[in-house]
Specification:
By secondary structure, the protein is an alpha+beta fold. The protein is built from 4 helices and 6 strands, in the order αβααβββββα. Strands 1-3-2 form a 3-stranded antiparallel sheet. Strands 4-5-6 form a 3-stranded antiparallel sheet. Helix 1 packs across helix 3 (50-65). The chain is elongated and about 50 Å long. The model has no long low-confidence stretch (mean pLDDT 93).
């Protein structure tokens, strides 16, 4: 379904930030920087409070795709920009170990680059990245 697709994209971005230097994910802002807001997401809540529903969906995304222990490395807040509302997710880097996402066909390894999130599929590439990135870190 489309919702799973969007949730997967969000989880992929979070995993990429966890495996690199951390970062911010802006939900409700498209790739070219236009603020769309969360009105579509809020419309799915029916008669439930919009923000509560959104937060529950966000938590479900984390639980579905990522290991539970990373919860403390992720925080999210709503912000109003003009008459639109967005959700800003702050992701702290995983300092001790690589984080794998639960993908459709098993575990996936994602890394944030300068302006995109790349999947590493080659075992040697993953091993080398992990050794280089996590060596000598407490």
């Amino acid at each position: 379904s489309a919702a799973i697709g969007v949730k997967g994209i969000i989880a992929k971005s979070i995993a990429g930030f966890l495996n690199s230097k951390g970062g911010f994910l802006l939900i409700g802002v498209n790739d070219d920087g236009n603020i769309q807001g969360l009105s579509y997401d809020f419309s799915l809540s029916g008669d439930k409070p919009h923000r509560d529903y959104f937060r529950l969906q966000f938590d479900d995304t984390i639980k579905q795709f990522l290991p539970l222990f990373i919860k403390d490395k992720i925080s999210g807040e709503f912000y109003n920009i003009g008459n639109k509302e967005i959700f800003v997710v702050k992701v702290f880097p995983s300092h001790s170990k690589p984080i794998f996402m639960n993908g459709q066909h098993g575990k996936e390894f994602w890394v944030r680059w300068t302006a995109s999130t790349k999947q590493y599929t080659d075992v040697e590439e993953i091993a080398n990245y992990c050794l280089e990135h996590w060596r000598n870190k407490d």
